[in-house]
Amino acid sequence: MVKERNREEKKVLKEKKALKERKVRKPLRKASGVQETESAGKKRSPVHKLPRKKMTKMKRKIKLVSGIYIAPSFLGVLAFFLLPFVVIIYYSLVDNPISGNFVGFDNFIRLINNLSFKTAVANTFSFSIVAVPLAVILSLLLAIMLDSKIPFKSQFRTFFLSPMMVPVASIVLIWRVMFDYNGAVNDVLVGLGGAKIDWLKSSYSQIVVVILFLWKNLGYNMILFMAALSSIPRDVIEVARLESASPLQTFLYIKTRYLSSTFLFVTIMSLISSFKVFREVYLLTGNYPYDTIYMLQHYMNNAFKNLDYQRLSAAAILMSLVMILIIGTLFIVEDRFGKDVEG
Amino acid sequence: MKKKNIERSAVLQQKAVKHGRAVKRDRLDRKYSRGRIQGRRAWSGFKIALATCVAAVFAFLFLMPIVLTISNSFMSGAEISANYGSVFATSDSGGRVYVAEKVNLKFIPDMVSFSQYATVLFRSPEYLLKFWNSVILVGPIVAFQLLVASLASFGFTRYRGRLREIIFFTYIILMLMPYQVTLVPNYLVSDWLNILDTKWAIWLPGIFSPFAVFLLTKFMRRIPTSTIEAAQIDGAGEWQIYRRICMPLCRGALCSAAILVFIDYWNMVEQPLILMRDEEMHPLSVFLSKINEGEIGLAFAVATIYMVPTLLVFLYGEEYLVDGITSQGGIKG
């Protein structure tokens, strides 16, 4: 008797629950139904539909409120980066901002044919193509060195990282002492029986700039590689060792796979900082350096001085396109290479 | 006792079998013979010694310029012009004036003197003024970029819709763009707002720079959702979750971001050159390169003073710095 009553009560309760749920769900279902008819042509996958359906009042509130938190930053980015960039695209396509005649790609052609722009691009390119791979490889070597069992690891890490902290302006004096015609490096060269080289005013200047760049950036890259090396699962390496793989093999066939995403990032960051090397060059040699170290930023600076909006806009757009192209390619390459490991 | 020993040897044997030692005993015996192992140990010891030496050489090369700058700042003016006169005795119009044929690179000055510092600090106020310019330019950027960025990264963490992912991706791309690209839009807006040649032209683009947003979002997304949900159930509003949960948990990340932003802007050269023509307002980083020959003695002292804040930050925050760099690494994830 009691059992039966209990059962009945349970049944009623269940029904009530079901009713409640239906009541709550009904309007939601309607809403999602409307959405479905709206986007019937698009064929949404069921995975995508799921979160929409689940969006409760609570979640919608969170979405709205947290959107307000993003607003200041986004408005700032919109105002200082994105909107003016649209205007720049417009500027690059007209003959001048006031009359606004559409001239197509004339500005770009004019820019590409400009001699000093050509030198600047060529110099920046040839600098990056030497400096970036060197920065990646040398910093990887440093990281491997610190990953082995050498003593004073943390001290070495501090030492290698310290150039990153020092402002370029403070250190430029010493570079001048080193690489001047009467400088310390030439002293050593003469001591070794060589001839003096005018480091900053000859085609050797690019070597100097590469050295300065490496000095500044190796530590940063090294930290990235060290973190990646230490996050490789130990058991994988253990297995390789048991299979009697040599350390070189372990490195080439296992570690590099896990490092691939770090390779990508280090390359991108080095590329970006290779454009910043203008600082060193400017602080060492001023606005008009020797021809082979006339960088893109020098060109931009001079264009700013003349307020040649068309040329500036065209240069900025060209450069951003090239950057996106390079970064995109790197991403694709990395995707191919590191597909089977989640690094 | 004996029984234990027997048991142990059995275990050892089993292990050996497991590792295939029993099977390939002959070959392995040769491979792991005592002489071999000793030889290998010596070889690996040699390798470690070699690596240490190479690391030491690198460390010397890395540190030398910094140490030289600092130690040379304690030289008297006479000593500096005696040692480095040949390098700096150049004038823009008249060509070189040779004082001596070569420089005298010195780690330790003959006589330690604080005269340069005395001059910089008390007698020539223009350097301190420029230093103050740097502080005024960089301080607000660090503070407000962190504020704006922490708010935004809270928004990016709290809800992840498609639109937000697109915005976040735009931020990443902007972050990766070199100055040559971003300075042009910054210049245009500053021109429109009529803030060119004022501090605002540096401040505003700096404050809204997307870098810290990226870094902080990376950190904040690692906070377990259960923590936030627990707070929510206890009745915390969004502001309280931000203020009481996310900010305290992200203190390390905020330090990392602050350090990285600080280094970046303390080092700035491009922005003031383009956005501020008035040299009176330039930070010390730009001004240092314009020191002329008469004041070379001072230059080392000024350079050292300019270095001090970054070195202090480095000494106290190296771990945060390393954390910050490391977490930038996962740009894809």
Structure characterization notes:
The complex is a heterodimer of chains A (343) and B (333). By secondary structure, chain A is mostly helical. In chain A, 78% of the residues lie in helices and 0% in strands. Chain A has 14 helices and no strands. In chain A, helix 10 packs antiparallel against helix 11. The relative contact order of chain A is 0.09. The model of chain A is unreliable at 23-45 (pLDDT under 50). Chain B has a domain at 124-328: MetI-like (MetI-like fold). Chain B has 16 helices and two strands. In chain B, a hairpin with a 3-residue loop joins strand 1 and strand 2 (95-96). The model of chain B is unreliable at 90-100 (pLDDT under 50). At the A-B interface, helix 3, helix 5, helix 6, helix 7 and helix 8 of A face helix 3, helix 4, helix 6, helix 7 and helix 8 of B.
List keywords for this structure.
heterodimer; A: 343 residues; mainly alpha; MetI-like fold; 2 domains; 14 helices; 78% helix; 0% strand; flat; B: 333 residues; 16 helices; 74% helix
Determine Rg of chain B (CA atoms, Å): 29 Å
Which stretches of chain B of 5+ consecutive residues score pLDDT under 50? 90-100
- Estimate percent helicity of chain B: over 70%
The CATH topology annotation of the largest domain in chain A reads as MetI-like fold
What is the distance, rounded to the nearest whole angstrom, between the alpha carbons of the first and last residues of chain B?
Answer: 57 Å
Structural class of chain A: mainly alpha
Average pLDDT, all residues of chain B: 82
**Morphology call of chain A:** flat
Q: What is the CATH top level name of the largest domain in chain A?
A: Mainly Alpha
What is the C-alpha radius of gyration of chain A, as a whole number of Å?
30 Å
Shape of chain B: flat
User: What about the largest sheet of chain A?
Assistant: none
CATH superfamily of one domain in chain B: MetI-like
What is the CATH class designation of one domain in chain B? Mainly Alpha
How many β strands of chain A by DSSP?
0
Count of DSSP H/I helices of chain B: 16
